[in-house]
Amino acid sequence: MNIEKYKSVIFDLDGTLYDNKGLPLKLVLADILNMWVLGAERLARKHIKGRDYQDAAGVYDALFAEMASVKRSLTVDKARRWYQDKYMPLQVSLLRIYFAPRPLCVELLEAMRSRGLKVILYSDYGHEVEKLDALRIPRDLFDGVVSAAKMGGLKPCQKSMERLMKLYDLDPATTLYIGDREDTDGESARPMQMDFYNVKANREAWDELLKSFL
Question: What is the pLDDT of residues 159-194, one digit of tens each?
Fold first, then answer.
């Protein structure tokens, strides 16, 4: 990897800065009575991902409406309350108890900043600041922290990506996107001719990334 070409780095959060293996099961077990609502959220998210809704309000309105459409016994208001008051706070709590950043994650971020790179966190979920706090990753290691929903559409929405690049004045030619999923992170980067690095490409991928910057 020729790291000298990069002036900025975009990091995904879930699955990238920490290994999220086991999180789905913990979410189910921690709220087993609402497992059917979680299933509706997962399906609804797949239905709306990649579409542009202009802003976060539009994204969440679409998500909750789709959840209610998937499960007829679920109302939009109930979906919204479950997501905002239970589901996302539960994710944060589980991260705080059971999960930790990948090895030398903080040191990697510090090294990137010391090189003068602009470092942006771009999460597909909300509560991105609370998640960083739960993982004990200092917020000030990032030049920007934002969710795809706040940019108007879930990954791999290209309009969201364009708004992100404009918001933080990033050049795709000199930006490295680091994520863990080809279908969301990779497909966000590639149409913009941006280099993408998958930390789950193989067992050595994270270690190779560390070697490149540390």
Answer: 999 999 999 999 999 999 999 999 999 999 999 999
- Full residue range of the structural domain in which residue 87 is found: 23-98
Placement of tokens 């190779």 in the chain = 208
Domain-terminating residue out of 40, 68, 98: 98
Kindly tell me the sign of the dihedral angle through the C-alpha atoms of 94, 97, 98, 99.
Answer: positive
On whether the CB atoms of residues 154 and 48 are closer than 8 A, the answer is yes
Count other Cβ atoms within 10 Å, centred on residue 21.
10
Long-range (24+ apart) CB contacts under 8 A made by 191-197 are 191/156, 191/158, 191/161, 192/158, 192/161, 192/162, 192/165, 195/6, 197/1
Q: How far apart are CA 34 and CA 79, in angstroms?
A: 11
Counting the structural domains of the chain, the total is: 2
The mean pLDDT value for 91-117 works out to: 98
Distance CA 71, CA 69 (A): 6
185 in the same domain as 117: yes
